[in-house]
Each structure stands twice: as C-alpha cells, then as structure tokens.
Amino acid sequence: DQQVKQNSPSLSVQEGRISILNCDYTNSMFDYFLWYKKYPAEGPTFLISISSIKDKNEDGRFTVFLNKSAKHLSLHIVPSQPGDSAVYFCAAARAGGTSYGKLTFGQGTILTVHP
Amino acid sequence: EPEVTQTPSHQVTQMGQEVILRCVPISNHLYFYWYRQILGQKVEFLVSFYNNEISEKSEIFDDQFSVERPDGSNFTLKIRSTKLEDSAMYFCASTPRGGYTFGSGTRLTVV
Q1: Is the separation of the CB atoms in B99 and A46 below 8 Å?
Q2: Which residue of A has its CA nearest to B40?
Q3: Hey, which bits of chain A come out as E strands?
Q4: Fewer CB within 10 Å: N-end or C-end of chain B?
Q5: Which candidate in B37, B45, B101 is best for mutational testing of the A interface (most A CBs within 10 A)?
C-alpha cells in the first residue's frame, strides 16, 4: 500500500538553512494532511496540518504547501535548527465518512541538521 | 499540555500468550486509535474507535485483536495469542477532530 510516499529516506541540512521535506500521495479522496516529527522510542509528535481547501499553512518556522493537482505536499522548516533532527512523517486522511481519522503514513524522512 | 499516556512502555511476552496494552486518551477527545510500527517500517493503522464501537479496522486487525474502553478513561488493545510478527511499537492516539495526539508507545517484544 503506497498511497503516501516520501521518496527521500534522508536529508542533511546546515543549521540556519531551509529544510524541504516532500511527500506524494495517490488517493484523491485524501483531504487532510499532517506532518509529524518522531524521535526514537517516542510517539509521533504533531507538527502542522493542512486541509485540501488550502494550499498553504504556516506555523512559526514550519510551513506546509499543498499542490492538489500534483498530489504533492511539502514541509518547509526555516531556519533549520539542530533540534529539528528527527524522522519526519507525512500522513493523509479523509476527514469525513466512516473512515474519518484513519491516517495513512509515508515511510518517513530522516532529517539531520548540522551545526 | 494534555498527553496520551500508554503503559507499559515495554512488554516482553512469550509467543502464544495474551497481552493487553493500555492507553489513557486525552479526556475530552472522542476518537481513539491504535497504530503500530514494525521496526524499519511505516506506522500502520490498526483500528479506530468512536462512540464505544469500532468505526474502522485494517486487515492487520484480525480476530486475535480486540479493543475496549472499559471505563471512561482507559482504552485497551488486547492481542489474544501473540505471534513473533506482532513484535512492534504500538501507538495509541486520540483526537477531538484532527490534530491527532499520539502516546509515546509500547514496545512489544514477542519471544
């Protein structure tokens, strides 16, 4: 089941620069998208979400962009900090109907921010 | 900040034994979930629970699995007869409506 794909297993960025994490999806029924950050031996921590009625959502250093026609979303972190080093998961959901709430996750991208 | 609490953090069990993983969701949340992550793989949906019943389950969630909300605060996942391939991190999550909050997980090791 490859409905949500993160094609880059890892990304390395210098502190202060922009980190761009990408995610593609295939299921056109998805209308709610989330990014999570995960440290080893911890649960995913919610970062930011976006509904399909928007193409951009911003929260501090984190911005998520959604391109519905391309079925693509990205997470921008500016400026990147060493504490941002973690695994980042993209997730998608249908916000209505009986499948509300089921998140489909990508494989994750390991972000390393170097001082 | 409200948290989803999971216990135990690590459980080792013999193959064939029953295990119960426990979760205390955030108190005003209405939707509850179990997910799991086998080492090196994606986080996978197992089951969602709303209004005291299962609203959706994946093909992973077979007859060996069950969920229960025995009182107003706990949400449990039971595996009746564990198999080696059930070894994974199990995450509980809850949400009022979006912005899901996950617990820190229970690492289940079946030996």
Answers
A1: yes
A2: A107
A3: 4-5, 10-14, 19-25, 32-38, 45-51, 56-59, 62-67, 72-77, 86-93, 104-105, 109-114
A4: N
A5: B45
State the Cα–Cα distance between residues A73 and A35, nearest whole angstrom: 10
> Which class for B11: exposed (0-12), middle (13-18), buried (19 or more C-beta within 10 A)?
middle
Cis ω for the linkage preceding B8 (within 30 of 0): yes
Evaluate if residue A69 carries a pLDDT over 80. Answer: yes
Give per-residue pLDDT as tens, B39-62: 888 999 999 998 889 988 999 999
Q: Measured between CB atoms, does A18 come within 8 Å of chain B?
A: no
**Cα gap A26→A46, rounded to integer Å:** 22
Nearest-neighbour CA in chain B from A43: distance (Å): 4
